[in-house]
Each structure stands twice: as C-alpha cells, then as structure tokens.
Design a protein that fits this description.
CATH class of the largest domain: Alpha Beta
CATH architecture of the largest domain: 2-Layer Sandwich
Strand content: 25-35%
Number of strands: 15
CATH superfamily of the largest domain: ATP-grasp fold, B domain
Number of domains: 2
Order of helices and strands: EEEEHEEEEHEEHHEEEEHE
Structural class: alpha+beta
Number of helices: 5
Radius of gyration: 18 Å
Helix content: 25-40%
Shape: globular
Length: 246
C-alpha cells in the first residue's frame, strides 16, 4: 500500500505530496460536502467526472491543474497558489439568486453573471464585491479581468458539453490558482469540476404521458451525468485510503 504524506484534507478530498516537485495527488473521498454522507463510490464518480471536464478544458486551451488520472480515486495535479475565492457563473436563476433577489427560479439571465465568494468555511463563504477582492489583496484588477475571461471560456465549454447530453448548466463554482512558469505567472482552473459544484437541470425528463416536463434537478446527478457522458466506471467500489506518514 502506498505511503503518502498528507498536505491537506477537506470534506470531499485529500491532497498528498506528489511524486515530483510542484505536483500533488488529489484523492476523492465519499464523504459529503453538505454535512452529510455521500453514497459509497461517489468519490470514484467525481474523480472520473473531474478528469473528463479538466482534460477537456486542457484540450481546448483552457489551463487547469489536471495532469492525469492515477487510479479510481486519485489524480495527479499541479501545485498552485490558490486564490482565497470561489468564482461562480450563473446562467439561470437558481436557489441562491432567487432567494436573494426574488427572481423566479429557472429564469434565463440576460448574460452569464460572475460572482465572487470568499472561500472561508467559518464565515459561510460570503458573497464579496470586486472592490473587496482588490482592496484586501486577494487578487488585483488584472487578475479579475483574466479570471472573467477564463471563467467565461469554462462556461462556454461546460454549457455545450452538458447541453449535448440533455442537461442545462444553471450555475457552477470553480477555484482558480496561480502557477509560475519562470518569471511568468499564469492563472489556472484548479480544485475540481464535479456535480457537487454545479446546479444541473434535466432537459430529458418526461411526465407519465411521455411529454417533456419543465427542467428540474437531474436525478442521481453524478451517476446519471457520468452515464450520459460515457465515463461511468464499470465497477464503482470503495478503495482503501493510502497509509499516511505522520
């Protein structure tokens, strides 16, 4: 069994030192992100889905931290200096926006809206303005301009892929990190892209008479999305965690 030194552990993932400088091994757990337990094998599905989306972004020229999948639960990624932000793109009004502004859920937005949230669990990840981001040094104005350009390319890619399998991407969140290539700093998409960070609505739902229903939540999101995308593992099962070095 592999022996790894743990760098960080969150609700849904563990990061271990990678085999080469500047790399990490990202391990997907089954535990939930919403104070609950996810079904056994959820981490396997999220590993496959994040691989699918990240490698797809790499292929169209959107830089990510993803290098390659190692096994059912682990992938090799580049180490990045993470911005303390979660960046959300909204294409349709969903629960958070509807509750905050009274816009009916499902309303198409006139254009994608980019929001910033401080990535601090103790504070409940509050919504922050660009002025806060710049004033407190979390990113500069050039970073924000680059983030918007980057995130809208991600939105175009994800929306197209989802629509191709009958799924509407109402919104999603990602994290962004900095990497250095010599003296040049580059922003990349990092962390993960999985259904845990998206609001997805099924466009193929039918009522009892076989008529299309209005878009609603995608049932059993990770499994159904993986099935439609053709990345559902043939044997989704639990694997043991690596032995840690204390």
């Amino acid at each position: 069994m592999a022996r790894r030194k743990k760098v960080y552990e969150g609700k849904a993932k563990i990061l271990f030192e990678g085999p080469e400088p500047g790399t990490l091994i990202q391990y997907f757990k089954d535990e939930g992100v919403d104070d609950g337990e996810r079904p056994e094998g959820r981490g396997v599905l999220n590993n496959r889905l994040s691989e699918f989306f990240m490698s797809g972004l790499n292929s169209v020229g959107v830089p990510t931290h993803f290098i390659r999948r190692i096994n059912m639960r682990e992938q090799l990624v580049r180490m990045a200096e993470m911005l303390p932000l979660e960046i959300m793109v909204r294409n349709h009004a969903s629960t958070g926006l509807s509750d905050r502004l009274g816009i009916p859920e499902g309303t198409p937005l006139p254009r994608p809206i980019v929001e910033y949230y401080l990535n601090d669990e103790k504070l409940g990840k509050p919504l922050v303005a660009e002025e806060h981001v710049v004033a407190f040094g979390w990113a500069n104005q050039q970073d924000l301009d680059d983030i918007v350009a980057l995130i809208l390319r991600v939105n175009d890619f994800l929306s197209g892929v989802m629509l191709g399998v009958g799924v509407r991407l109402a919104d999603f969140r990602v994290e962004v990190g900095r990497i250095w290539e010599g003296d040049f700093m580059r922003l990349i998409i990092a962390d993960e892209i999985t259904p845990d960070n998206c609001t997805l609505w099924d466009l193929r739902g039918q009522d009892a008479e076989g008529n299309l229903r209005d878009p609603g939540p995608l049932p059993d999101m990770p499994t159904e999305l993986a099935r439609r995308l053709g990345v559902l593992p043939s044997n989704v099962t639990h694997t043991l965690k690596p032995t840690l070095i204390n």
